[in-house]
Structure formats: structure tokens, C-alpha cells
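Q&A FORM
Asked by: J.P.
Topic: structure of GZF1 protein

PROVIDED:
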Amino acid sequence: MESNPVLLESKSSPINLLNEMQQLRLLGHLCDVTVSVEYQGVRAEFPAHKAVLAATSKFFKEVFLNEKPVDGPCSNVFLNEVQVVDFASFLEFVYTARVEVEEDRVQRMLEIAEKLKCLDLSETCFQLKKQMLESVLLELQNFSESQNSEEESAACPSIAPIAEAEQNPPDSSIAMPGRGASPEGPAAKSKEKD
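REPLIED BY: S.T.
REPLY: Here is the structure written out as C-alpha cells.
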């Protein structure tokens, strides 16, 4: 009698694997490549694992797969015009699937993702930029609506006094001659003030 196959699947294994690879990288264990980056005279070296870089970046995959056996395994990769802080963030992202950056660096992270052909980081940056744009548009819409409501409320009070003035015309406050009021009325007072 045959038994039915069952699926054994770990939800935590991918996260655990990434966390362990990150710890190995941070400690410098089993690293088989050093990536040197330089931007405007600032240079830094980052030990990493070829397998992780190749699995997350088509750029690194092409570099490592196109190594010639005569040259031996490539243990150094040099990236020019890449800021140290951006590459450090890139590495953190590919090893942990998350990284915290300032809003003004999102565009630079998108550019490094495109340069290194890292689809996951590109998509993440694109989605974040989309959310940021939607947030700005929502703020503009709210600001516009609040401006419109302020303009309407500012216009409404000026309508109310006009309506009151129509109900009580200015001439009605001036007593007609013969009712005991001066024929000069308010006009005479304004002339005195001038």
C-alpha cells in the first residue's frame, strides 16, 4: 500500500538562512570575494559570499560565471562611482531582504540596484517611490481641499453681512425728516470726521 506524499515546508528557513549568511559575512567567515568600492576618493572593502551576490545580482552573477579558470577564482571586484554607504546598504538588503535608508537616498538605491541588476531591490525601491509619490499627491490634495474650504468659509462671512444689510438697508437707520432726526444723518457725521 502506497502512502500519499506530504509537503514538508519551513516558513522560517529562508529567513534563518539569510540571517545566518549575514552573520557569517559580518564576522568575515567563509567569504570568498572582496568588493572594493570607491566614490570621490572615499574607498572601502566589503567581504562577501559569491553565491549570495550571484543569486541576488545579475551583475555579480555575470562577473563570477565569466571568470576564466586560468585567472583562478576572482577574489576581488572593483566598483567605481559607487558610494560606500550605498553599497553597504545594498549588501545589507541582499543579505537580509531589508534595509533602512533616508528618503533622499531611495533614488540612489534604485540607481545602484539597476547598475548591479538586482531586481528585488529595484522593485522595492520602485514600490517605495510610488508610495512616497502617492503620499505627496495626497498631501497636495488635502492642502488644496483645505485651501478651497478656507476660501469658501472666508467668502461665506462676507455673504452673510450683505444679506443682513439687504434686510436692514442703511437708509432705514436714517430717520426721515419729520420723525425728529436731523436731515444730515450719518453723512454729516462722516464729513465731521474728515
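FOLLOW-UP: The two ends are 115 Å apart (CA to CA).
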